[in-house]
Amino acid sequence: MHVLIVVHHPFDLWCAPEWLAPRLREKFPQHTFEQLKDYNGIEENIGKANALIAWSIRPDQFVLAKKLKWIHSPAAAVHQLMFPEMVASRVMVTNAREIHAPVVAEHALSVMLALAKRLPSAVLMQSRKHWGQREMLENVPPVREVRGATVCVIGMGSIGREFTCRAKAMEMKVIGVRHEPKKGNEGADEIYGLDELHKVLPRADYVLLSVPLTRATHKLMNAEHISWMKKDSYLINVGRGPLIEDKALISALRENRIAGAALDTFDEEPLPESSSYWGMENVLITPHIAAVTHRLWERHWEQITENLRRYDAGEPLLGAVDKSKGY
């Protein structure tokens, strides 16, 4: 089998390390591995590939991939691969959702605690050399504890499952929302479908977005859905930027119709300097780092090598994507 590796990104950590192909050749001498530094030349090389490790591939490039049987994305989200030709093909798609999930769940819990303890306000007061003890208590919402709070987790896949485990350990109540509630509650106290947000959003102190980006979830948090949130609740997004209708959220934040938001992903990245989010004291911005960890590529290595072993043995692959659903 010929494996083509094309994992390039402006952010260095997302790029495949130079050691990846040589280590794979050593471990799997029966296969050949070719690693490109970027997408230049992919058209000349994709035709002989049986497997592709990449974030994405364009439809015009996919047409050239006559021998392709398997694509592995080192991302959790694969919406960029779900074009009609790919979905209709027999090419298998796997992703790295299990690799990213524990780290993203840690990030989600971190920013939730930061919001509850009003750490962004404390940092701002520190920069002004202001001892704001009274304001931290009296301003709305005040500093509060998370034990006993209710969090609505929208998306009960690998990230939602990992977050729920951690939230329950802190004695929080978890209400899960997922595409298919019949799949189970994944440890949540209650489980609902996406069409039942009106039942759960008014009860949540925190709303966590960890759902895949699909047609059903694009701009999921629109003006109507945001209006169902409590005035003292927070919205946390560790999923994808397009899950949120920015204009609606910015309006709600300006008018203090919700307490605040912690946002790690955005429609446009890097977030433009012109974005209204930058100037909002009730918004905690992180630059798409929820999945960042110094062990990232060692974790990728473990999944990639296990899946190559499984592929050779004819066993089911880890992180298999249901192309008909897009996740």
Question: Would you write up a description of this structure?
Answer:
This protein is α/β, with parallel strands linked by helices and 327 residues long. Helix 5 crosses helix 8. The model has no long low-confidence stretch (mean pLDDT 97). The protein folds into two domains: 2-98 and 294-313, 3-Layer(aba) Sandwich (Rossmann fold), CATH 3.40.50.720; 99-285, Rossmann fold. It has helices at 20-27, 42-45, 59-62, 84-88, 97-116, 119-127, 133-138, 158-169, 197-200, 223-227, 246-254, 296-313; strands spanning 2-6, 32-36, 51-54, 70-72, 92-94, 150-154, 173-178, 190-193, 206-209, 234-237, 260-263, 283-285. The strands form two sheets. It has a seven-stranded parallel sheet with strand order 8-7-6-9-10-11-12, with helices on one face. Helices cover 32% and strands 15% of the residues.
Summary?
The chain has 327 residues and is an alpha/beta fold.
> Mind telling me the CATH class of the largest domain?
Alpha Beta
Coarse morphology: elongated
Number of individual domains:
2
User: How many individual helices?
Assistant: 12
CATH homologous superfamily designation of the largest domain: NAD(P)-binding Rossmann-like Domain
Number of strands: 12
CATH T-level topology of the largest domain: Rossmann fold
Beta percentage is 15-25%
For the largest sheet, list the strands in their spatial order.
8-7-6-9-10-11-12
Helix/strand-derived category reads alpha/beta
Global Rg: 21 Å
Helix content estimate: 25-40%
Distance separating the two termini: 26 Å
Report low-confidence residues grouped into runs of 5 or more: none
Largest sheet: 7 strands, parallel
The H/E string reads EHEHEHEHEHHHEHEEHEHEHEEH
CATH architecture group name of the largest domain: 3-Layer(aba) Sandwich
Mean pLDDT: 97
